[in-house]
Amino acid sequence: MTTQRARLPWWRSRRGQDALTTMAVRLVLSAGAVIILLPFFWMISTSLKQPAEVYLSPPIWIPNPPQFENYVTALTRVRFHIYALNTAIIVSTVMLGTMLSCSFAAYGFARLRAPGRDLIFMLVLATLMLPGAVTLVPTYLMFNAIGWINTFLPLIVPAYFGSAFFIFMLRQFYLTIPIELEEAARIDGAGVYRIWWSIIVPLSRPVLATVAVFTFVGTYNDFFNPLIYLSRDEQRTIAVALSYFSGSPRIGPQMHLMMAAVAASIVPPMLLFLGAQRYFVRGIVLSGIKG
């Protein structure tokens, strides 16, 4: 029997089958990665083309020569630095408000005992089923009545009242924290606020990184709300400013400049994701939101 096993072909052995399986999985994943990255490659290629080369068929994937001046033109034709500053102000304040409000609310739902706590939590989750279009008109009328239109307040202030999805995600994480840590802190005289700030928040860095990434990407790419609440050009965000390159009926879309502006605008979220990737994946796993 030993002789028969020794005479088995390499590809029929246990080690050979494991190697073939690994190779097949890598080939499938590589093909999927190429398909996913194909639009990205097309964007970079288009951003380096001349206007006459954009709509050629078959397409030119490697422009010769590459037009790197498209980036300079795209970033200087509009006031990109102003739009970037506006976006940075909105995104940073929304991230801060979302993490603070959602973390504190989630801690209350996970640890504090109160009559009707679970019912209130279910009502919070029920708001996820409410379409944004339903609340758009009354929300706009309310902000207009208090004079917040053409300010950043309608985009920033709601973040300080929590988000149902992030509250749920943080609550799921807080339920995994041993309650003995809080009991020991109470014995030492710590109150609810001190426990939340000194124990819960430091332990929840992975899930807070996840919240930060989701909030950053969602706010950074938000086109609809800045378009609705901000009408002055000096208040525009990057997402709205990209529409300036869509052209007009007389000029037509300037696709090469739009792709250059888009390529430049994706650098901040890409750097954030690469920097927080380890915490992002860990936060998704620990919060129980998988699938």
Structure at a glance:
By secondary structure, the protein is mostly helical.
Name the descriptors:
mainly alpha, 68% helix, 291 residues, flat, 15 helices, 2 domains, MetI-like fold
What is the CATH fold-level name of the largest domain? MetI-like fold
Fraction in beta strands? under 5%
Residue-averaged pLDDT, rounded?
86
Mind telling me the CATH superfamily name of the largest domain?
MetI-like
Broad shape: flat
Q: What can you tell me about this protein's structure?
A:
By secondary structure, this protein is mainly α. The protein folds into two domains: 2-71, no CATH class; 73-286, MetI-like (MetI-like fold), CATH 1.10.3720.10. 68% of the residues lie in helices and 0% in strands. It is built from 15 helices and no strands. The chain has helices at residues 2-6, 14-47, 69-77, 80-111, 117-126, 132-145, 153-156, 164-174, 179-187, 192-203, 205-220, 224-229, 238-241, 255-265, 267-286. It starts with a helix and ends in a 5-residue tail after the last helix. 24% of the residues are buried.
List the helices and strands and how they pair.
Elements: H1 2-6, H2 14-47, H3 69-77, H4 80-111, H5 117-126, H6 132-145, H7 153-156, H8 164-174, H9 179-187, H10 192-203, H11 205-220, H12 224-229, H13 238-241, H14 255-265, H15 267-286
